[in-house]
Amino acid sequence: MLRKQVFSFKQAKSFFHTTNAVRKAYFYDMPAMSPTMEKGGIVSWKFKQGDSFKAGDVLLDIETDKAEIDVEAQDDGKLVKLILNDGSKNIPVGQPIAILAEPDDDITTLELPKISENSSNKTKKSAKITNKSTKTVGKQAEKSVTKEITKKNDYLPPSPVFHKSDPNQVLYPSVAILLAENNISPQEAFKKIEATGPKGKLLKGDVLTYLGKISPKSLISITEYINKSASLDLSHIELRKKVELPKKPEPIVLKTCIPLKRADIEKGQFTKTLRDYINKFKFLAHQNAWEINNNKSQFYDPLFEALLIPEPYAPRFTVEYKLKPLFADKNNDTQLKNDIFDMLTIGVINNTNNNNKNQENYLLDIEVTVSNKYSDAKEKSERFMDYLKTLKF
């Protein structure tokens, strides 16, 4: 597909060859879409003979060897006659292709310009001369620009940021596009353009400097700034001094000893009952005061209360206890050992030993460790210690 461009009627007007100013009808000549264009073709007319058009309307599509172009009308007018129709090709630039008039002109009474061979030949010759002169000017301009660019790059200020371009590099897309737009091959760029990128990499700024669009001083200053920030200087970095974290406060430990007496109860049952009491006291100590006394408000909501208390079901303290037997004297201790031996060997226990078995004294050694995470932990642990004082057997 050819790339479509828009060519205004105002631009085309400079290429039109009209007859004397007395005539209101005038020729609409084949316009030159570029300085190098010599011939073109008519793809299609957008208006018919006798139609009026307004400024901005597309009059026709013109086809060149490079593109298909829309030609717009800059002023209002009227299409009087088509000299060349759709599909006409190889039309020299400057050859009349239509006759136009002002929008208020009457076509029936309008005097039309005549096409003569001499005028047509003159038009062709003038068009060719114009194209040749345009080509000459274009070439001279290109030569002058090339000379200016070469002169600028010959006098680049000496700087360590410039390096020879690596001929084996893969160009960045932005660099490749810029070179193609200015008709510079990659091989030519590697030879003539100094590189500021790492390892001889060509950058877009290098090409713009070569084309004279930015100054070499600007390129040098930008490159020096980038190179300066490319590597980090760690020589002045000092390690942060070790900060000693505050020590966590040691947990509060509550201790107590409670004497107990086991009478008329088996030892296994005694220890089980003691464990059940301790677990019950722990449960009661973790409850809130209004829960213990059944003193709930009419607005009480357990979900709301759980939101107010941080981690309401987390334990506030831990309990460790030991049950130590107490003996009256060494004789009793020896007698106890004999009783155990007799039980294992003979299985006979006398009445005296039975009395000693059913009446034993113990010391309950309890240690309560209070959590330092919760504000109500100490209060609930002290409540637990108060419950222990009520323990009786």
TrEMBL record:
This protein's UniProt keywords: Lipoyl, Mitochondrion, Pyruvate, Transit peptide
The Polar residues compositionally biased stretches are 128-137
The record's Gene Ontology biological-process terms are:
pyruvate decarboxylation to acetyl-CoA
Segments forming domain Peripheral subunit-binding (PSBD): 170-211
Region (Disordered) residue spans? 117-144
Q: Does the keyword Membrane apply?
A: no
Lipoyl-binding domain segment(s)? 25-101
| Subunit text | Eukaryotic pyruvate dehydrogenase (PDH) complexes are organized as a core consisting of the oligomeric dihydrolipoamide acetyl-transferase (E2), around which are arranged multiple copies of pyruvate dehydrogenase (E1), dihydrolipoamide dehydrogenase (E3) and protein X (E3BP) bound by non-covalent bonds.
Family classification: Belongs to the 2-oxoacid dehydrogenase family.
| UniProt name for this protein | Dihydrolipoamide dehydrogenase-binding protein of pyruvate dehydrogenase complex
What is the organism of origin for this protein?
Saccharomycodes ludwigii
